[in-house]
Design brief:
- The structure is a single chain.
- The chain has 5 helices and 5 strands, in the order ααβββββααα.
- The protein is mainly alpha-helical and about 180 residues long.
- Helix 2 (about 40-75) runs antiparallel to helix 3 (about 110-135), helix 2 (about 40-75) packs antiparallel against helix 5 and helix 3 packs antiparallel against helix 4 (about 140-145).
- The longest helix has about 35 residues, at about 40-75.
- The model is unreliable at about 10-25 (pLDDT under 50).
Amino acid sequence: MIDPKPANPATAAGTNTGTNTGTGPAGKSAGRKRRFGGTAAQIRSTLTFYKVLAYLTGTMLLLLCAELAARYGFGQYLFAGGTNAVTGQPFGFGFADAEPPGVLGGVNLSVAVLIVHGWMYVVYLMSNFRLWSLMRWPFLKLVLLALGGVVPFLSFIVEKRVHAEVEAELAANPQAPLRY
């Protein structure tokens, strides 16, 4: 017959023994150790890069929405420089008719906003992937991060929550990023 063994004092005190004994904060198992894909310095620098890109991409998305409203709602493009097609006078900066062209020459800033936001979104996605892979989050978190660059105002909201979550996870798991 098997003799019963006394309870381990470490288990009775609630310390982590490596066994899955229940759930802890945020639905994570209390027995499972949290591991990150990088050091705390790598995670914090990636978080800073993500934060900067979240604000820039969100701002460019708001400019893009304003540009699309001007184009499709009012038939106007944003131009800098060129010549007024009707009067022949120099055109400085402002909105002009899209069809027929209200400005000859000059820089179409509406198209520039489209291009800049597109490329900035690509870099934003790279920062999302880097942060997601270092934090070892589930795939749906990556999808939520990616939506921040295409839904107006969402990048600001998601960035604030992600920043707080990353800092909380780093503080709650000081042993997790110690890899090297």
